[in-house]
Amino acid sequence: MKNLTVIRHPLVQRDVTLLRDKRTPSNQFRAILRRASTMMAYEVSRELPLKKISVKTPLATTSGGVLARSVVLVPILRAGLGLIGGFVEVLPDARVGHIGLYRDEQSLKPVDYYFKVPRNLREAMVFLLDPMLATGGSSSAALTYLKKRGAKTIVFVTLVASPEGVRLIQKDHPDVKMFTCALDKRLNNRGYIIPGLGDAGDRIFGTE
Ligand code: PRP
Ligand code: URA
Q1: For tag attachment on the chain, is the N or C end more exposed, with fewer CB atoms within 10 Å?
Q2: Number of domains the chain is built from
């Protein structure tokens, strides 16, 4: 699908399977998601530009690289918090914003309650993080907000996506590249991803 990359690394796919398993308790779910998020961060940052610098080893001077662009990570609360640990580990200089949204259970429309993002988003590479892309309403609203705040380059990173959600982001935000670890079959009539992994926020925080 246009603008969508599926991360097929076997270690990531193993972790997706463990996360799908309904027997995986919250403490393990959190740890596995954190491990998977480290690998996801590595995969999605492949195209970050490098600036050439010279570096002195104990023996000689050679050329090396530093990241040429600032990085901003923006998890969508709550479940996006489950991805932040691995991303910060791989991108320790990243600044971090937060977007608070939840889905109204009846209408499935996003309700916003918190926004705080760093200044100067215009120059930054922004990674929007949310493990679940279901109807796409939450992530589309978050992308619109980030653009209003000046973001020009945004990559949306998710663990499990539905075809419906991918299509909505393609329509509303054709400039945004998406990464997922699984493109699932469909949504059920309550807007849950099938087969999915259930409610990601509940499984991370044990609020079921
Ligand atoms: C979940 C998930 C996404 C959203 C996806 O959040 O983390 O943000 O649903 O659904 P959508 O694509 O249909 O908008 P939820 O609303 O359950 O909030 P929570 O993370 O605070 O539990
Ligand atoms: N949010 C979730 O956490 N899971 C779904 O399947 C859909 C929305």
Answers
A1: C
A2: 1
